[in-house]
Amino acid sequence: MVLEVLARCQDFISAQRLHSLLVAEDLRISLSTVYRALRELETADSVDVVRDDVGERLYRLRPEDGHRHYLICRSCGRSWPVDSEDVEQWAERIAADHGFAAVEHTVELTGVCGDCQPASDEGESLSCHPDSGRRTPAHRARSYAS
Prior knowledge:
It contains 4 helices and 6 strands; from the N terminus they run αβααββββαβ. By secondary structure, the chain is α+β, with helices and mostly antiparallel strands. The model is unreliable at 121-146 (pLDDT under 50).
């Protein structure tokens, strides 16, 4: 159930938000079960994980072609995969230069997307989510693809 709902999520999502989506679909599942399932998916390299600005872990189903890096909007939480070949080569070179093997890395790129940047004539931030003001970290990631 967790994997099915996560697969429909367009961007990174918190365990709490994922649990809310499951419950909204009348699925009886505890939050601890959601956390356990996400931990198993992470161990199996089936999800990518990032942390938001307060340290909460956010999850996204990993594409079949493997590990990716993302550019994430700090305002609305939308994410875009980025070409990261340079990062991968750099990590391999640094590991080899220091005699390391089986090196893992985390690279997080954050910024403010074009939709959330202040309008040039208004000087204040636009919300990517017109139905809400400032989102809490658990709700920053967009949930479902339309």
